Amino acid sequence: MSTSHTTTGPDAVILDYNGVLGRQPSSDQWHRLARLAGWPEDDIASFQTAFWNAREPYDAGRLSDLAYWARVLGYHPGSRLLRELRDVDTAMWTTTDDRVLAVLERAHHNGLPLFLLSNAPAHLSDILDATDWCHRLMTSAFYSARLQTVKPDPAAYRHALAATGTTDPHRVLFVDDRADNCRAAENLGLRTLHYTGRITDLEAALAVTTG
């Protein structure tokens, strides 16, 4: 999916976190979490399946840390293991892409309002909210655990869109690494960029110059 072609840049930008600002977890990080969960070393795929199968209600704030990890593990972990699982899980999603942040810095310097819209559980939401880049660059940040809904539910987009103050959704750009999330945004009239890691695409969509 490509950006809509217009002669001017957007009036505001709504950005996904993971896969755009945030880097995807490494294989080592996945294996560390799986080992902590007691998963067989040679069966990381089934661990990831269990991890993701329970993730949507966790991201939407409908499951506590304990309830989520009980679903993943098949039993209730003790308080110490629960804390370790949550902290290692959270750490997997907190590495940012310096190239993307540099583009956002230039956009922010040019006066372009930036809004974060992320599917994230409560603890990760708190961590991201406290980062320097979030304080410095984002006009507002919205997280699924607080909204009680996840992308691609239209309600999630409407919260962020309302915060931009625009009356014309097409004046707002939505950036996400998932095509289904972009399609949902397009259905509401937003411009979209299905971000695939090409930093030049992001620069062009935000109408910022290189350098």
Question: Can you put this structure into words, describing what you see?
Answer:
The protein is of the alpha/beta class. The protein is 50% helix and 10% strand. Strands 3-2-1-4-5 form a 5-stranded parallel β-sheet, sandwiched between helices. Helix 11 links the parallel strand 4 (172-176) and strand 5 (191-194). Helix 1 runs antiparallel to helix 5, helix 2 (44-53) packs across helix 4 and helix 6 (98-109) packs parallel to helix 12 (199-206). It starts with 11 loop residues before the first strand and ends in a 5-residue tail after the last helix. Mean pLDDT is 94; it is low at 1-7.
Keywords:
211 residues; alpha/beta; five-stranded parallel sheet; 5 strands; disordered N terminus
Give helix % range: 40-55%
Largest sheet: 5 strands, parallel
Whole-angstrom Rg? 18 Å
| Strand ordering within the main sheet | 3-2-1-4-5
Number of helices: 12
Q: Runs with pLDDT <50, length 5+?
A: 1-7
Question: Whole-Å distance between the termini?
Answer: 26 Å
Q: What general outline do the C-alpha atoms trace?
A: elongated
Would you report the number of β strands? 5
Structural class of the helices, strands and pairings?
Answer: alpha/beta
Beta-strand portion reads 5-15%
Order of helices and strands: EHHHHHHEHHEHHEHEH
